[in-house]
Write a structure and sequence with these properties.
Elements (H helix, E strand, L loop, with lengths): L1 H24 L3 H16 L7 H13 L1 E10 L5 E5 L1 H11 L5 E12 L5 E12 L6 E13 L2 E9 L4
Parallel strand pairs: 1-6
Antiparallel strand pairs: 1-2, 3-4, 4-5, 5-6
Helix pairs in contact: 2-3, 3-4
């Protein structure tokens, strides 16, 4: 009986290890998209004392997560509508935003819908941003990301604010 129990535990451990290894080394499209958006939120966040090298690296990461013709259209209440067209303009805006001091960006409540052809996806999420110099200014917006699969990478093609009904 002990040999059988030890064998069953060993087999179960192998199955769990196999599932973990498969999911780690061969993630599905939703996991890849979630990972990409986590990287984007991290690259979009910055501290006031960020070194120029780190600033440039994070801005480049932000640009490389997007298609060359990325379009970003966001409307934040109390602010004007902001439109960004292309990676170059995104890079310029990201560098200019560093003048704010400190910004913390987070993406919450991600809902990923991958198209049947696995070449595009739509992600709806809650974007949260807080500028450190404005403690009471927490910005929360519903956003819709349109993602495209280019070669083996998921890139952001479009970002837009979701208007409440």
């Amino acid at each position: 009986m002990k040999k059988w129990l030890v064998g069953a535990i060993f087999a179960a451990a192998l199955v769990v290890l196999g599932i973990w290894a498969w999911r780690t080394f061969f993630p599905n499209h939703e996991q890849l998209i979630r990972k990409r958006l986590l990287e984007v939120a991290t690259a979009a966040s910055f501290a006031a004392d960020e070194t120029p090298i780190i600033t440039m690296r994070n801005c480049q990461k932000l640009g490389s997560a997007c298609t060359p013709d990325v379009e970003i259209v966001v409307e934040v209440p109390g602010h004007s509508r902001e439109t960004i067209n292309g990676r170059e303009e995104l890079l310029q805006k990201a560098l200019a935003a560093r003048a704010l001091g400190t910004l913390k960006v987070a993406f919450l409540d991600l809902t990923v819908t991958v198209a049947p052809d696995k070449r595009s996806a739509v992600v709806t999420l809650t974007g949260k941003g807080q500028i450190a110099s404005e403690k009471d200014n927490l910005m929360v917006e519903e956003l819709k990301f349109t993602m495209k699969r280019v070669e083996d990478a998921w890139l952001i093609a479009r970002v837009e604010t979701v208007k409440p009904m």
